[in-house]
Design goal:
Elements (H helix, E strand, L loop, with lengths): L4 H11 L22 E10 L2 E11 L4 E5 L6 H7 L10 E9 L2 E2 L7 H7 E4 L10 H11 L6 H11 L3 H4 L12 H13 L5 E5 L7 H14 L4 E5 L3 H7 L2 E9 L6 E10 H6 L4 H7 L5
Parallel strand pairs: 3-8, 3-9, 6-7, 7-8
Antiparallel strand pairs: 1-2, 1-4, 4-5, 9-10
């Protein structure tokens, strides 16, 4: 058991969020949505009076990578920000529908959004290390969450999990800002891992990186999915095809009278089928490069 398991258990009991098993059984195709990490139903998002995402329903499975693809402006980032309530931080944002995390609605009135974000980590498009040492970047989250275990061990294990330990073990007290872009992004992944999440959200995590650093991030994702559900937003369809088990294609609808635009989910399924035998012509046109 990880050293922070006791504190994590206590937190889940206090916030009313569901207990998450440390070793879930592999998900099989015939299992129902009760096996899902997320069960999302009729999810819509409004910014002010304008709808940005409309009636999205899909399941996210444990220990798989789900890729979210679609043209610019279709609501990909808006969608994943619903999964850890980051949209709560945007003035005027309203979320309707259900986002069930292990069966419990994370938007229920008695659920603490901060506790949600501890369980559902996020890695952003551009690396955003804190202006602190490498060590303090990793230790920050556990410290503010009251971690009582061996912090040195937790920092090392998190960096190892992010395939970064060997590169930074002699630089732990140096500024994280001195690391390369690819190292900074892996540091941000390690920082997310350190608070023992159940899910890792990645919003274009390699778009600002060179090809070598991108390969390292993709290889890291393959290792991390053994323990976590990963949801990645990407404009790179080749990347989606390489790394994910399942893919969701979002598309933009336009009101011809008002020119208002919003995102919809066109289809969601096994990545191989989405890219080779999509059910919807809009998906076929997008993955074949006819628009995007």
């Amino acid at each position: 058991m990880n050293p922070s398991s006791t504190s994590s258990t206590r937190e889940r009991e206090e916030t009313g969020l569901p207990m998450v098993p440390e070793a879930a059984e592999p998900v099989e195709e015939h299992k129902t949505s009760t096996s899902a990490v997320f069960t999302i139903r009729d999810l819509s998002v409004y910014y002010g009076g304008n709808i940005a995402l409309k009636d999205v329903s899909l399941d996210i499975r444990p220990r798989e990578i789900t890729a979210i693809i679609g043209p610019s402006g279709c609501g990909k980032s808006t969608f994943i920000r619903c999964l850890n309530r980051m949209n709560d931080l945007i003035p005027g944002a309203t979320v309707t529908g259900e986002v069930l995390y292990h069966g419990q609605n994370i938007y229920a009135p008695d659920v603490d959004p901060v506790a949600v974000r501890r369980r559902i980590g996020m890695v952003f498009q551009r690396p955003n290390p804190f202006p602190k040492s490498v060590y303090d970047n990793i230790a920050f989250g556990p410290r503010i969450n009251g971690f009582k275990g061996n912090l040195d061990e937790l920092v090392e294990n998190s960096l190892r999990a992010a395939a970064l330990w060997e590169e930074v073990k002699d630089k732990l007290k140096k500024s994280a800002l001195n690391l390369s872009g690819g190292q900074q992004q892996r540091l941000c992944i390690a920082r997310a891992i350190a608070v023992e999440p159940d899910v890792i959200l990645m919003d274009e995590p390699a778009s600002a990186l060179d090809p070598i650093a991108t390969v390292r991030i993709e290889d890291l994702m393959q290792e991390l999915k053994k323990q976590y559900a990963i949801i990645i937003v990407t404009h790179n369809m080749q990347q989606a095809a390489r790394v994910s088990e399942r893919t969701a294609f979002l598309y933009t609808e336009v009101d011809e009278e008002t020119s208002n635009r919003w995102g919809i989910l066109v289809e969601h399924g096994e990545t191989g089928l989405i890219f080779t035998r999509p059910k919807d012509k809009r998906t076929e046109d997008y993955v074949s490069g006819r628009f995007g």
